[in-house]
Design a protein that fits this description.
Chains A, C: One of its GO terms (molecular function) is dioxygenase activity. Chains A, C: It holds the Pfam family PnpCD_PnpD_N. Chains A, C: Keywords: Dioxygenase, Oxidoreductase. The complex is a heterotetramer, with two copies of chain A (335 residues) and two copies of chain B (168 residues). Chain A has 335 residues and is α+β, with helices and mostly antiparallel strands. Chain A has seven helices and 19 strands. Chain A has two domains: 154 residues, no CATH class; 137 residues, Sandwich (Jelly Rolls). In chain A, strands 12, 13, 15, 16, 17, 18 and 19 form a seven-stranded antiparallel beta sheet that branches. A five-stranded antiparallel beta sheet of chain A has the order 1-2-3-4-5. Chain B is mainly beta and 168 residues long. The longest helix of chain B is centred in the first third of the chain and has 6 residues. In chain B, 58% of the residues are buried. Classes of the chains: A alpha+beta (335), B mainly beta (168). Chains in contact: A-B, A-C, A-D, B-C, C-D. The interface between A and B is large, with 75 and 73 residues. The complex binds fe (iii) ion (2 copies). The site of one fe (iii) ion has 4 residues of chain C, from loops.
Chain lengths: 335, 168, 335, 168
């Protein structure tokens, strides 16, 4: 096995003379961008060249999540062809392997990489390909265009740290509340969300235990979309609320059952078979609705107005092994 | 352009439920329910499980009047989705605490909770409160409200999936 | 059968109080838009409600072509769910009928409408849903956003007449050349295309017969994308060149073989099965390349830079009957 | 922002050919070829069919030197993709015209074309010229060039699909 220093070595070209972007190579995959597209090329299992084209704004929005989430739980499909599967120390990169037709035709490619190698490549690609004024985390109505020739960068936006409470938002030595002063103003679409904090009446000495915070106010100040934070933790039960607007930039194929609790407004979900991509169901979620995404599905959401979604994840490290052994249930509950 | 938005929350008195639209799957696999619908059909403080993942659950409670005193060996969190709910906390003395530190889920405190008063808080819609492990806590709600509990499945958890979920 | 006046009656709502857009109904289909999406709902063949969500910019770009082309040849898929099939006096509108999984599951809906009825509905929907500053014919880098609340309209842009030469561009009484004066400046991406006209040396009296024009200069002045004009006609053989940038907003399922001649730059095509949507091939076309789209495929192109594509169509009216009788070949040539 | 674009045309001396990348189909069904490649392997003025749809064809011609004189019962069009090609036109007298008004495709004029000189034109890359029906026309090209003809399939049309198309 290569030394970590080698693993993090990124294979990249000089910037294109006209377009200004670098190309990247990772194993048998090549990536280049132009004004409108990300182009991915590979050699198929049966040895032929194949290519795929994605709108570069959609590609960068997907890449942003994959990078920011450390490849997340399970599969992150950028679209119906390309994506990654997280094995938590290594990551599969594939084209066509979870597309029923392409897989059957033998034209797919899947390669496993040490996490640090693919992470380093993706991070550099994201940074090189993201122009000044384009924020892949922002809602489409709140950012400029991803298109055109290379102009500047937006490193600050794409390297935002994920906000992860250890126990609960607002506790001493834990994730702070969001405020104007901390650069988190209320989003335009949540201007009507009350900003009051809970009435707390701690007896002396119990100030850090008699604790509550306004979750909806906290979420109304989220600067990003489709990017869960941790706000409260019970053992390995993580409340991962997030604010959603427009389209989830990835099609998530979780390796475990994942629960959604819609806290306001609405999201429409397309659910499809994880392995083949075939449509399975639509899930229309309104304020107060709860739904589980079975572990055999991939899901992509559409949020017409910025909305608050509570993603509830089981982050138990044992679960990874149970999933590998096939002991983890694919459906949320039997009844 | 200056447009104003209306953020749509639900409540016991006013909610609209979505649905699963199956294409080629069993709707039961989506365990689709609605907290306001559940709470509108529950008795006060029934701990109705409406999300579960191994040992972990999300429970939906109709908050109405005073709840019993609970305690739990691990932290829990209460998120208010409707109404105004007070949470009263007592630093429970060791004999009344859950003796098994690994025990999942809340239990009723046996007898009157003994220990220092820690204080109380008043949670409105969107407020989330910590229920620290090994304390005794009680909900008080003058009018019906809805509380979501982040906890583990325990002795008091009630499962009635077929009643709460979309089945076809 | 209804009288034509009834057929053209459009079923529409009052504008939404917040969003400003009207909703539309056509047979068993309902259409509404919000800030980001077009929502289509229908009752499935087995009687259940089903819905579909499309990004509204993509929806309007597709709708624009369907309206402008009079439903074109064969099938115009807006995406993998919704689309139309032209029967030349009537038009099918469908959701899921050409999606292998949805069709097999019985959740699709297909209804046939007189052309004038669906045309009137689509035209009004397009006009109501297209905001000032958004031109669905324009390349993404050359237009404003489709998103947000209703603001004004862009009727002039969406009612451009199709440019159809009867014999040849530039002949007397035929389609005129494009010039600055006629509102057709050279596009930024074709600034280097020579604008010289051919040297013509007609003998007296043959000025309208010794005729040629600069096709590439003509195309360099196209104000629209993915919108073929007719430039020369031999019987029912139509040269339909067009300038392409970004993504073809529809997935075209022609009912006949269609030929593409790439005249400059490049376009990448995704080809899939017409009936099921399963991937069949990629076609990478560069300057000078010719390729046929077999009649059994649906195709969608990606043009990284504005490029010139000659679409070559057989518009013979007999062909419609031959296709109906299954006498028309699905492949371009046997060898 | 002011960016400048380079429009990429092909030529006999400099072209890059694309390809069909089959996923689950026969590449022959896409009849994929390239006009510069065809013309680089053709004899002067061979009318190589590289697009056909029922009676209609697109032909690819290598323009080099003087062509024979052609005539046709219907209009045709010539698009120059490389080089500089002169087209000379004669208003052909009736006896030399194609006798069958429905006959598809160009034929050679028998003998020397007789009739009024109509004039000539010089077509460079991107220029498209009308070849009016029942005229005689001749191409003249000092250096090798490439002409695309929009016409119907006729006696002079040459089909060699297996040679020009990607076959695997
Ligand atoms: Fe997910
Ligand atoms: Fe087409």
């Amino acid at each position: 096995m290569n030394a970590p220093a080698d693993l993090a070595k990124v294979i990249t070209s000089q910037p294109d003379a006209d377009l200004g972007y670098r190309s990247f190579e990772l194993g048998g995959f090549k990536f280049r961008r132009d004004e409108y597209f990300a182009h991915i090329t590979w050699t198929t299992r049966d040895g032929r060249p194949l290519s795929h084209t994605m709108d570069v704004a959609n590609f960068l929005r997907a890449l942003m999540r994959d990078v920011a989430w450390g490849f997340f739980y399970g599969g992150v499909n950028f679209d119906h062809v390309i994506g990654t599967t997280n094995h938590y120390k290594t990551v599969d990169l594939y084209c066509g392997s979870y597309n029923g037709t392409m897989k059957a035709a033998g034209v797919d490619r899947l390669e496993n990489f040490p996490t640090e190698q693919i992470a380093a490549t993706f991070q550099q690609m994201l940074d090189d390909w993201t122009n000044e004024g384009f924020d892949p985390f922002a809602a489409p109505q709140e950012t400029g265009t991803a298109y055109g020739r290379k102009r500047g960068n937006n490193t600050a936006a794409i390297t935002r740290a994920r906000e992860l409470a250890k126990r609960c938002v607002g506790l001493k030595d834990d994730l702070a509340l969001r405020t104007d002063e901390r650069g988190a103003p209320v989003n335009r679409a949540f201007a009507d969300v009350p900003q009051d904090q809970p009435e707390l009446h701690p007896e002396p000495g119990f100030e850090n235990e008699v604790h509550a915070f306004n979750l909806f106010a906290f979420l109304s100040r989220s600067q990003v979309t489709w990017n869960p934070s941790f706000t409260s933790v019970v053992k390995y039960s993580y409340m991962c609320p997030t604010t959603e607007e427009h389209i989830l930039p990835i099609i998530h194929a979780n390796d475990r059952v994942e629960w959604f609790f819609q806290m306001c407004d609405e999201i429409h979900w397309d659910c499809a078979d994880k392995t083949t991509g075939k449509p399975l169901a639509r899930v229309i979620m309104k304020a107060g609705d709860m739904a589980a995404m079975p572990a055999y599905c991939r899901h992509q959401g559409y949020s017409p107005k910025r909305s608050m979604l509570l993603v509830w994840e089981n982050g138990s490290p044992n679960l990874v092994y149970e999933i590998q052994k096939g002991e983890s249930p694919e459906v949320p509950v039997q009844f | 352009m200056n447009v104003s938005y209306h953020t749509k929350f639900g409540s016991l008195s006013n909610y609209e439920k979505g649905r699963v639209e199956p294409i080629d799957d069993d709707v039961k696999h989506y365990a689709f329910s609605n907290c306001f619908e559940i709470a509108s059909k529950s008795k006060p403080y029934e701990k109705v499980v409406f999300g579960q993942n191994q040992i972990y659950v999300l429970e939906c409670l109709r908050a109405e009047g005073e709840s019993p005193w609970y305690t739990c060996a691990h932290d829990e969190f209460a998120l208010v989705m409707d109404g105004e709910v007070e949470v009263h906390l007592i630093q429970l003395e060791a004999p009344q605490q859950v003796s098994d530190a690994d025990k999942n889920g809340a239990v009723l405190v046996e007898g009157t909770p003994r220990g220092k008063k820690m204080g109380w808080m008043k949670l409105k819609r969107g407020h989330q409160g910590l229920l620290p492990k090994n304390t005794a806590y009680q909900f008080r709600s003058a009018k019906p409200g809805v509380v979501i509990l982040q906890t583990c499945k325990g002795d008091l958890s009630i499962e009635r999936w077929a009643d709460i979920c979309q089945v076809q």
